[in-house]
Amino acid sequence: MELTRLRGFRDLIGADARAMSLVEERARAIFDRYSIKEIRIPVLERTQLYQRSSGETSDIVEKQMYTFTDRDEGETVVALRPEGTPGVVRAYIEAGLDRTDPEQRLFYSGPMFRRERPQKGRYRQFYQFGVEIFGRPDAACDAELLIMIEEFCRDLKVPFTMEINSIGDQKCRPAFREALVKWGRAHWDELDDDCHNRIDRNPLRLLDCKKDAKVTESAPNSLDYLCDECRAHFDTVKELLTGVGIHFVVNPRMVRGLDYYTRTAFEVMAGGLGAQSTVVAGGRYDGLVETMGGAAVAGIGFAIGIDRMALALEAAGVLSAVAPDAAIIAMGPAAMRRATLLARVLRANKMNVEMLSPERKMKTLLARASKIGARYAVIIGDDELARGVVQLRNLKESTQSEVQEVQLGEAARAIAESRTK
pLDDT tens, 90-145? Predict the structure, then answer.
């Protein structure tokens, strides 16, 4: 039996892994500036957590979760987490924060699992970076999150479009749902089987019809059904974004696929990704904490699709390869011992260094140094060892100079500084 990876899962090697790490590093840096603290949640949770939060009629619960029965005494049914928000809310409630210190700003990161049909940008194991803010029902909080997302995308130099909408709250959304049900029944033949199943259970998902996107153009508009409070909230969000120069598009057909969202919903699409272009999605969920057994605390959050954002970096051509500043070539056992010490000196002076095998010939080692993209080769043999020098070869310009070992640290700092210019 050939051992290969499972369908929908992938290995991330070298540049692919680096692209993912870059997205995570930039996200952490942005979130730190906004005083958002980290939370780490388990990969395994009770299946009931997602049934209660995401809704039993959601695609996640009905089709996509990886579940199994644990071998504990209670034979607990558990699931690999398909999303981050329910686990964060559970931890928030379990720690008693909803009652003792409800205003919290948290971010999470890590793998999620959904048994979807695999395609580029959509995997069965995928990675998310998410933010959840509790205890802030105000529109200023919505705007702050959207401003943060805009800064994050600009920092990565990824071209993007931001779409926002309001889907109302418990007071005004029932009328919108009723109008969607009526519209869905009138357009039954134009909808697919999934939509037929959603008409009564989750009519907002009718706007995600996969059979023919054009059919939803005649569907009811969520903005037409907003109550005065929801309309004022949405108007304030738009006003605040416009005031700081954030460009956005109001898309009244955009809804969130999960039951717990209310009022503001948003998505960010990156250029160059085709159909799977959504890289950030989220919205407000003011009733979720209470639904899951906590206090009546407002909430809002979003998730960044790290896999897709990494693809967006590649499509935008802004992801540069990471190559070592220098490759160290030591000829002979004595030179190898000195080279090990010199590598430590170079790295202490901020140089990226790769030591090459001392058991190969010079020509082979120089070819290897060029292949890995090193800017310089630091060469040391018996003669250099005796004289306390190294040969510093510029592989890009095909020039070579002799450097005293005592001056190597100074040369390393100059090389490292030139990398950042």
Answer: 999 999 999 999 999 999 999 999 998 888 778 999 999 999 999 999 999 999 99
Range list of H helices, 130-211: 139-156, 173-186, 193-201
Separation between Cα atoms, residue 142 and residue 150, nearest integer Å: 13
Do 42 and 102 sit in the same domain of this protein?
yes
Domain boundary among 284, 316, 348: 316
- On whether the CB atoms of residues 359 and 326 are closer than 8 A, the answer is no
3-state SS, residue 357:
coil
CATH number at residue 368: 3.40.50.800
CB 119 within 8 A of CB 283: no
pTM for the full predicted model: 0.84
Please give the share of the chain, as a percent, with pLDDT higher than 70: 94
Q: How far apart, in whole angstroms, are the C-alpha atoms of residue 107 and residue 85?
A: 10
Structurally, the chain folds into a number of domains equal to 2
Give the tens place of pLDDT for each residue, 195-228.
777 777 777 777 766 656 677 778 888 898 899 9
Q: Which domain holds residue 144?
A: 15-172+226-316
Nearest to 84, CA basis, from 301, 306, 308: 301
How long a stretch of residues is the chain? Answer: 421
- Regarding whether 416 and 337 lie in a shared domain, the answer is yes
- 408 in Cβ contact with 390 (< 8 Å): yes
Q: How far is CA 25 from CA 29, 39, 43, 127, 416, in A?
A: 6, 16, 21, 14, 21
Exposed/middle/buried for residue 420 (C-beta within 10 Å: 0-12, 13-18, 19+): exposed
Q: Please state, in angstroms and rounded to a whole number, the distance separating the CA atoms of residues 352 and 370.
A: 15
Query: Which residue, of 288, 316, 344, is where some domain finishes?
Result: 316
- Same domain for 303 and 416: no
Phi, psi at residue 354, to the nearest 5°? -125, 125
Residues 126 and 263 in one domain: yes
